[in-house]
Design a protein that fits this description.
The complex is a heterotrimer of chains A (126), B (233) and C (116).
Chain A: H1 20-51, H2 53-64, H3 66-93, H4 100-125
Chain B: E1 2-7, E2 17-22, H1 34-44, E3 63-66, E4 69-72, E5 85-88, E6 95-97, E7 100-101, H2 104-112, H3 132-136, H4 155-159, H5 166-177, H6 185-191, H7 206-210, H8 217-231
Parallel strand pairs in B: 1-5
Antiparallel strand pairs in B: 1-2, 3-4, 3-5, 6-7
Helix pairs in contact in B: 2-5, 5-8
Chain C: H1 7-35, H2 40-48, H3 50-78, H4 82-112
Classes of the chains: A mainly alpha (126), B alpha+beta (233), C mainly alpha (116).
Amino acid sequence: MDRPEQAPKFLNLLQISLPPGGLASIAHRISGVLMFVALPGAAWLFALSLQNAAGYRAALGYLQSAPVRWLTLLLVWSLAHHLLAGLRHLLLDLQIGIGRERARASAWAVNLGALALSALYLVGRW
Amino acid sequence: MKFSIYRFDPDKDAKPYMQHFELEESCIRPGMMLLDALLLLKAQDESLSFRRSCQEGVCGSDGMNINGRNGLACITQLTSLKKPIEIRPLPGMPVIRDLVVDLEQFYRQYRTAKPFVINEEPCPEVERLQSPEQREQLDGLYECILCACCSTACPSFWWNPDKFLGPAALLQSWRFLADSRDQATEERLSDLEGPFRLFRCHTIMNCVEVCPKGLNPTRAIGRIKELMVKRGL
Amino acid sequence: MSRAAQGLRAWLLQRFSAVYLALYLLIMPLLMLLRGLPDYAAWRGWFGQALPGVASAIFVIAVGLHAWVGIRDVLIDYVHAVWLRLLLLAGCALVLLASVLWVLRALMLAAFATVG
């Protein structure tokens, strides 16, 4: 018989079901990493906006430029999802909504809520 | 009724593959469970391998990935499943053959949780007594049948099965922490410190989704964290 | 990197910083909207004030700590080679430190220097 180290494992993520809680969780992680990557840029932009009037205008200019607009939409979703999922996490830590049905429902609310907030932002910006 | 089942024979196959099976509709009886179907399919192909024993959801032998979701074949109704039914072994564990996986890592983590009452006091004449309220603390914890559906559904366990204890072992850890007869609270909590043993749990809650006994490892792990905070460890 | 980020401590740090971040993100933008900050002078004036300035400084530090625990969790989950993980952790720590200090410097300058 093969040694366990050489034995295959079933781990095709595309074939394993992703419940709403799982989706909320992986999106929480992805949104966190996205914001981490954006942090240096955001820090620089913020400092630029505080420097002087020219810097302020430049910062706004960058934010409104074509490629950056899509980035800000992505980051708005990231913030929205991370915040909502984070609040869900804090409640779960307090054992609130930790039963199977409630946890599923709150996961749905988080997943949809983040998309809704992003849509709101998109509409508001238009 | 069509089935697609994961096959792998280490002596014959270089790689696993999915084999298609079919059961005549006339074979399907009302209330039939997936295990019943698998036994009929085994009659078609003797080499099809899977674990099973009690056929009633208490031994935990026939845990497998059914249409993407972990569960026990003997208590999964055929009518509840989308067809064709896709059956694969429990995720993340080395496959010994077909649907039979090596659960050694799972058992090792279970043992690490010291799943027994630790009490240095001499044994009393009768049992170590518990009030009904104290006994109630064990509800939702003692019923675990170690089927491994939860731990093998947990991404954190997939990525670190040797260091993260996983939902089943952690649930048992809480089962003994919560037991009034156990005296090793400090020892148990210290054992769980560090970034891996307990803290790889990110409250993904896949475990709760799949437990065939309706248990809640996330809640148990939350209780352990609460206790840790209270103890200021 | 930091031994103080073991298990429970890291988890608590992440939770506490999260609470502050959530409160700041819910309250601060509202206050700013109510005040109305139409131009550079108003924008800088806002962050130059003591309360918004300090609250924002704490916010940035909290972001750094929170992001640190988060990124560390991601690296611990996926990067099993210890030396590579250490390298990446150090790199991320540097990026976070630089970003946080960059913003703190900007906030301090806004508080001390006269408006341009």
